[in-house]
Amino acid sequence: MPGVSDDDLSAAAAEIAAASDADQLVAACIRAHSVAGAITGVQVSGLARDWSTLCRTAVATAAASLGGPDQWLVSGSVGRGEALPGADLETLVVRADGTDPAAGLARASAVHELLSRCGFAADPHGAFAARARFNRSLDDWTAGIDRWTSEPEADRGVVMAGLLADAVAVSGGPELPDLVAGGPGVASAPPALVEPPDLRCRTGAAMRAHPQSLAAMLQDACYERAAVPSRLRIFGGASTADVKRAAVDPVVRIARWAAVSAGSDALTTPDRLAAAAGSRFLDAADAATLSRCYTIASSIRRRTRDLGEDGVLEMAALAPRDRTALRGIGREVTRIARTLNYLASTSAFSPW
Fold first, then answer.
1. 216: burial class by Cβ within 10 Å (0-12, 13-18, 19+)?
2. Category of 330 on φ-ψ map: left (φ > 0), alpha (ψ -120 to 50) or beta
3. Is 48 within 8 Å of 89 (Cβ atoms)?
4. How far is CA 313 from CA 51, 188, 233, in A?
5. CB-based contacts of 166, cutoff 8 Å, min separation 6
6. Mean pLDDT for the chain?
7. 84: domain range?
8. Within 13 A of 9's CA, how many CA atoms are on the CB side?
9. For residue 185, what are the CA distances in angstroms to 99, 150, 179, 203, 209?
10. Is there a contact between 302 and 84 (Cβ–Cβ < 8 Å)?
11. Domain end marker among 169, 199, 222
12. Going by fewer Cβ within 10 Å, which terminus of the chain is more open, N or C?
């Protein structure tokens, strides 16, 4: 498919939106995957933006084609606008008032079955709307937000708050009550974060009203889940690296914490880092470093997608400059995470 560009993804998204039935939607999505697979030589940020838009369109169209009054939201990389082709879907549903929970789950299951036919896999960790945890009434979501932010150590509070902080509505549905000072667990917020009220805005406001939830989110962000092996460790046998887990995800998590802490409603990781830069939560130079690390790591991840299984790469298979870049990213992310942990231990981020 010569001459394919990211403009073709915009056309593919329009075709998906125009699908009038399930078969047309499946056919349009299959063509979109083919287009995405042939795209080369574009900036990763632009590709991620366009693919995320296409994914959101697919979810909205699938939900509309099967009917139902529920509100659908996407989270994760699709919600942030950072999804690359092959990304799975993290979804949430706000059930309409009076909807039977079993009926709502059945509808969501049917939507995800259709999306699977379209080539979009649900999150392998189970964060999708066909599960009861992610398919709730507005009242249940509101109560959950208050619980997860006031007791972040309980009921996977940090995970749920993180998902909601990245959540974007792709279909209509019931609106959340206004976020006003004096509401249960919600502090006053700037008008830009209040209109229109939604799950993401309420979560951010609730987290700022409960500093313990921000502290828990930072602790989670700085926890090392994977590492880029050093040159010496490679010779000692540690020869693989998971670029996403070791170099991309840590920056995403730190940026989310910093932006929410600073009161920003930014979504993409670079925008979040820019919004928090120079605040008491994130040094301007560190924000610039993290943004550069994120851009480089995302580019390496895209270029090397065919070199490993499940994103795990043999370091020896990488170009020397990519090995050097990944090791540098690993060092910078570790340094900044340690700095943030130290500052947190000195109560530097406390509101008092």
1. buried
2. alpha
3. no
4. 24, 46, 15
5. 75, 76, 79, 80, 90, 200, 256, 267
6. 88
7. 6-169
8. 24
9. 26, 8, 10, 10, 6
10. yes
11. 169
12. C
pLDDT for residue 6: 60
In angstroms, rounded to a whole number, what is the distance separating the alpha carbons of residues 36 and 44?
12
Domain tally, the chain: 2
The DSSP code sequence of 239-305 is: -EEEHIIIIIHHHHHHHHHHHHHHT----SHHHHHHHHBTSSSB-HHHHHHHHHHHHHHHHHHHHTT
pLDDT digits (tens, 9 = 90+) for 75-108: 999 999 999 999 999 999 999 888 999 999 999 9
Packing angle of the helix pair 157-165, 138-150 (nearest 10 deg): 120
Which amino acid is it at 283?
D
214 and 161 share one domain: no
